[in-house]
Amino acid sequence: MDETAARQVLAQVGLEHRTDHLPSQLSGGEQQRVCIARALVNEPPVIFADEPTGNLDEENEQRVLALLQDLHHQGRTIVMVTHNPELGCFADRIIRLQHGALALLSACKEEQVQVGARAPALAAYDLAGQQVELAHWQGKQIYLNFWSSGCGGCLAEMATLEKLSKTYADNVVVLAVNTDPDGVDIAALLAQQHISYPVIRDQLGITKERYQVVGTPTSFMIDASGKVTAQHEGARNEQQLTALFKQLATGA
Hints:
It holds the Pfam family Redoxin. One of its GO terms (molecular function) is oxidoreductase activity. It is a single chain. The protein is α/β, with parallel strands linked by helices. The chain has 2 domains: 3-107, Rossmann fold, CATH 3.40.50; 125-249, Glutaredoxin. It is built from 7 helices and 10 strands. It has helices at 3-12, 28-40, 58-73, 152-167, 187-192, 206-210, 238-249, and strands at residues 46-50, 77-81, 93-98, 101-107, 125-126, 141-147, 172-178, 199-201, 218-222, 228-233. A 6-stranded mixed β-sheet has the order 5-8-7-6-9-10. A two-stranded parallel ribbon has the order 1-2. Strands 3-4 form a two-stranded antiparallel sheet. Strand 6 (141-147), helix 4 (152-167) and strand 7 form a beta-alpha-beta unit. Helix 4 packs parallel to helix 7. It is globular and about 60 Å long. The chain starts with a helix and ends with a helix.
């Protein structure tokens, strides 16, 4: 086994600082990530993953899922066995077994946004690592805004969105979807901008794909019933945003 390759794959699962430790010195989650690294080091074309995130915390679960998705995009075949139905959103095909028998075989057709149709489900997590669903804000208008830390237009909108999110809090929620890679720390930026509206991270890019976002900022208006009513690409100034939120607040 090539030592350099081994160290590289250990770094991919977040264990670059534990390369000189014995198995007995590792936690259960760390031992699981070592097993994943060992399975990947020889670059197999087919990877069988049995509950690969079972003993992992939220951060490392996302790390491993992102790694597997990247390998899939490179052309590897990933076969994952899991009891977690939420992981189905990462799959191209789903096979469900019940009492040892085939219960369902389906293609996991990826949702895509369409104005006038129900909003695609989110595949994103809040800053505490908890999965977020649009249903949490059912009954309110949602201003779903995709943004990135290197986007000047995104940053220029933040102060106005913060003000409007408070002014129209009873009727409209600003839900910001950050599209930066997992390694980009956005906490300091959010603190500097005094952001209090909910911010979620699309670490695997699945939500961005579902909403067909090409650049940031891109925003979607979702009504109280969960239907996408409008889409907009590019930044808006304060006057434009204020007029829009007045319209959203009245349900127009």
